[in-house]
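Re: that backbone. Tokens:
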């Protein structure tokens, strides 16, 4: 999954740029005033009854019942016992051909439009939604006439809350199409992303799936809210209006607990029980609201006031509490240095900032401004959530990789320890049983060699040498099986290395090489002198045997982080990476006639002296051995 995200990273960026571009274009087209557009400066309004007829309104001579409403002024509040309002709009005397009249915001569930006594259009919402738009064609013959609107509702709002515009019908058609283009683009973009994420969730591990699906639900419900919030769907798909409205309520009911659950999985992860309790409360409350919605519809909206109280009034209070809770906890995590909390807070700050700008523009434009910046804030917030989830996946992937490496290392160490234990027991028993017969055989060979001729004496000497070599191997076995440091004393590293120079320098010279030693005199470790010399001689002899032309060994030491480091570096033939990983394993050797016991003993002695050994090598360039011991002066 992580590789797939990395592979398609550029495509996601391009997609986001296209979405933002379309949104800005939609907003520009929506906000742009077409050439020749006119605004009706005022109209008249009166409260009426549901049984009022258009003929009675036209012939009515009572003038004082009509209120003059100036464009941009506040609409009068609807009286509680009124459900009908009439609006009269006076058209100009001269109207060009193919003109139209457009009202952007009408609050009513039923709108009937007349020119004179002729019914032009009627839209009825038999569900709880009261925001409509109206676009009507008018002809030159309608000039000087009046347009009547009968507005009816069972809700709290009633009237026209926007300018009334006159323009060419084609231009107004473009305006009404682009009016909701932002919501449509954002809605379908979010839905597409959410569906892709839900499909990808099948390929994730169970530990990652919960946070991934919760974020998918957040994006899915926000996309649905963008679409179902727009009056475009209700105006063009009126028979499905109740279903669209219910989809909005369901999306909101799923969004809030999903957001809390995502925050809980990313940041809290069970640390605070009351967050989990609040999330469970939200799930229960959302389920209660959905049951109440179904019950209300089955009873033909008889309990509409109860439903509005729980699904709007009380839910708004819960949302405010939820946002305060999330913001407060994210600030706490930011103070603690949590980078994901910084990203989350930044995304939420973008959302809040865009919403604030929208409110400022709304009030500075006499409340005629159409909110749109908050949508970009939502996009920024969602991007922040996706970044957080991607970062968490990357961290989990890195942790899994580290755990895998550690598990492999400890498994290797366990296998090696088991091998060492078996070999140690076997080596100790075999060495004790074989050493005595070898010594007896060597003694008799010496006696026979003293009494035989020169020819047989040469054979006897060879046999004794081979017995001595076998004895050395047995001694290595015993050292490996049961290493013992007879005496632990303070050792001066410089002095110990200078004492073995007399052995290793002539050996290096005989093999056509040289040794360079650079060890400070004030480095001290705790150990056994003879065993330390055995360790160094074994390693240096291996370097000498790896000499090529103009062989060289560089030995240096220093103190760092309360440890003494000893480096032995040669320019020999080097070791392959595969061979390098096997060094120190039982009976493994890079030499054709080697037993591997030398390095096994070296590793064991270093371990007993609480040290560590590390090999670095490159083929045909040489090998470097790094040995670390605790610094004696620190202890």
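Recovered sequence:
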């Amino acid at each position: 999954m992580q590789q797939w995200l990395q592979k398609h990273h550029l495509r996601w960026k391009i997609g986001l740029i296209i979405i933002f571009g379309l949104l800005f274009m939609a907003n520009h087209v929506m906000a742009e005033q077409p050439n020749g557009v006119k605004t009706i400066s005022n109209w008249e309004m009166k409260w009426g009854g549901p049984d009022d007829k258009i003929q009675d309104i036209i012939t009515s001579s009572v003038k004082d019942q009509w209120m003059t409403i100036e464009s941009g002024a506040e609409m009068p509040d609807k009286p509680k016992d009124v459900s009908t309002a009439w609006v009269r709009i006076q058209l100009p005397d001269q109207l060009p051909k193919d003109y139209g009249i457009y009202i952007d915001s009408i609050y009513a569930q039923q709108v009937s439009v007349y020119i004179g006594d002729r019914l032009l259009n009627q839209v009825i919402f038999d569900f709880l939604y009261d925001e409509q738009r109206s676009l009507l064609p008018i002809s030159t013959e309608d000039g000087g006439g009046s347009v009547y609107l009968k507005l009816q509702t069972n809700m709290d709002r009633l009237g026209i809350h926007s300018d009334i515009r006159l323009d060419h019908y084609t231009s107004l058609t473009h305006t009404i199409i682009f009016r909701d283009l932002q919501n449509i683009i954002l809605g379908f973009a979010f839905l597409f992303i959410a569906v892709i994420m839900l499909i990808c969730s099948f390929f994730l591990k169970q530990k990652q799936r919960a946070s991934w699906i919760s974020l998918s639900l957040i994006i899915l419900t926000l996309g649905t809210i963008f679409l179902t919030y727009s009056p475009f769907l209700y105006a063009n798909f009126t028979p499905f209006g109740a279903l669209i409205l219910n989809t909005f309520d369901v999306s909101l009911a799923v969004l809030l607990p999903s957001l809390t659950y995502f925050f809980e999985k990313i940041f809290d992860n069970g640390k605070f029980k009351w967050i989990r309790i609040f999330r469970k409360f939200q799930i229960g409350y959302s389920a209660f609201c959905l049951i109440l919605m179904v019950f209300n519809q089955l009873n033909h909206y008889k309990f509409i006031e109860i439903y509005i109280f729980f699904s709007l009034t009380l839910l708004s209070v819960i949302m405010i509490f939820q946002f305060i809770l999330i913001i407060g906890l994210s600030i706490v995590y930011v103070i603690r240095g949590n980078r994901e909390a910084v990203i989350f807070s930044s995304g939420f700050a973008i959302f809040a900032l865009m919403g604030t700008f929208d409110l400022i523009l709304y009030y500075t434009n006499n409340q005629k401004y159409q909110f749109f910046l908050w949508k970009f804030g939502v996009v920024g917030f969602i991007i922040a959530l996706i970044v957080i989830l991607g970062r968490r996946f990357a961290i989990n992937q890195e942790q899994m990789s580290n755990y895998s490496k550690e598990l492999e290392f400890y498994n290797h160490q366990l296998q090696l320890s088991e091998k060492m234990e078996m070999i140690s027991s076997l080596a100790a028993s075999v060495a004790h049983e074989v050493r005595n017969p070898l010594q007896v055989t060597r003694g008799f060979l010496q006696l026979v060699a003293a009494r035989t001729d020169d020819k047989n004496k040469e054979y006897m000497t060879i046999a004794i040498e081979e017995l001595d070599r076998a004895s050395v191997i047995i001694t290595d076995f015993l050292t490996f099986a049961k290493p013992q440091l007879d005496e632990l004393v303070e050792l001066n590293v410089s002095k110990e290395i200078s004492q073995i120079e007399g052995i290793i320098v002539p050996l290096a010279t005989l093999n056509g090489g040289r040794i360079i030693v650079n060890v400070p005199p004030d480095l001290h470790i705790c150990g056994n002198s003879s065993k330390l010399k055995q360790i160094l001689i074994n390693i240096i002899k291996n370097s000498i045997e790896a000499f090529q032309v103009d062989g060289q060994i560089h030995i240096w030491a220093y103190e760092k982080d309360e440890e003494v480091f000893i480096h032995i570096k040669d320019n020999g033939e080097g070791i392959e990476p595969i061979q390098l990983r096997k060094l120190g394993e039982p009976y493994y050797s890079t030499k054709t006639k080697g037993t591997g016991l030398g390095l096994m003993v070296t590793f064991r002695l270093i371990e007993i002296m609480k040290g560590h050994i590390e090999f670095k090598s490159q083929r045909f360039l040489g090998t470097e051995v790094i040995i670390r011991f605790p610094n004696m002066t620190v202890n």
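Residues 1-20, 22-36 have pLDDT under 50 and may be disordered. The two ends are 50 Å apart (CA to CA).
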